[in-house]
Amino acid sequence: MHPHLFAPVLIGTLDLPNRVIMAPLTRARSGPDQVPTALMAQYYAQRADCGLIVSEATAVDPLGMGWYGAPGLYNPEMVAGWRVVTDAVHAAGGRMFAQLWHMGRLVLPDYLGGDLPIGPSAIAGEGETMAPPPPDYTGGFLPMKPYVVPREMDQADIDRVVASYGAAARNAVAAGFDGVEIHGANGYIIDQFLQSKTNLRSDGYGGEVSNRARLLREIIEVVAAQVNPGRIGLRISPTSERKGMGDEDPGALAETIGQIAGEFGIAYVHLIEPIAAGFMEKPRHPVMDRLRASYAGAVIQNGSFDAATADAFIAAGQADAVSFGRPYIANPDLVERMREDRPLAAANFDYAYVGGGCGYTDYPRYAG
After folding, report:
1. Which positions are tagged coiled coil (predicted)?
2. Catalytic residue positions?
3. Which residue range(s) make up the domain with 219?
4. Whole-angstrom distance, CA of residue 73 vs CA of residue 207
5. For residue 249, which of 133, 139, 154, 257 sits 20 to 30 Å off, Cα-Cα?
6. How many domains does the chain have?
7. Is there a domain that residue 248 lies in?
């Protein structure tokens, strides 16, 4: 079933046995020190038969870490923890990229010793996020707090962010990853610079779209100095307005991003552009055609796909592969289920971010 979805493909310099991509899913199973655990190795190895696993978002710098239980990739202990994970995935026959992440303005001061987070402009994100646990925390959901107005970044702040991506890319190689995906989506720091609503700067990093994309260009450059560009991906969401995002011309933004990606010859662009409302809204004006016009590399599509729609998009040239996020929570055997058109199990979202192995590694394979 679905012959296009399950056909092999070369993306960058990586041969994939199928075009099912495991999308990054923040599951908050690292320890308080942000070091990946053996439980995470088990979780990812269970899902290693997909074409490519993209890790959960992984912080490149303590200033960009604002999610309790999320992993980092900025010290030797984190590198060693991730090595356990990548070894398990490789032993199971899989391939895995590290998604490199900095949250920017979406970090609460609670994670920064009371200091303000950083952002391109002094504009708070919309909504709220999980705060660290209180001293009497015994498990379960964490308290929620609203985002705060960040400190507008100066050149030293920008230089630190760029350098942290380069260092994390070097650490990803040491940790045994097959490549890296730069997280430029979902309202985090790169996206904050890219989109016009959150970037009101008047210097060389603000204003016209080419300036707003300058940080992205600099980050790709330092990452490409550590990782073969054929093993680098970039995730983007130009049409998303979640968390107070928004751009005056998402199509032009996508085209600019595609031009930069093409200049460096990176392996793929991972486009979040839902085909139906779900975790994100379906865009009123999709940008896939603008991206394709400026970028000749592989495009991974993401957003409310099932096996049939993914196969159709690939057949029509609207994607080279498709990533699946939430279906992977309760279906470690998602590839087999989709290939055989078997029903998918439903996830218990009470355990999406808490519960240890419960709701994480204990979902069974299809039993017929």
Report:
1. none
2. 188
3. 9-351
4. 32
5. 154
6. 1
7. yes
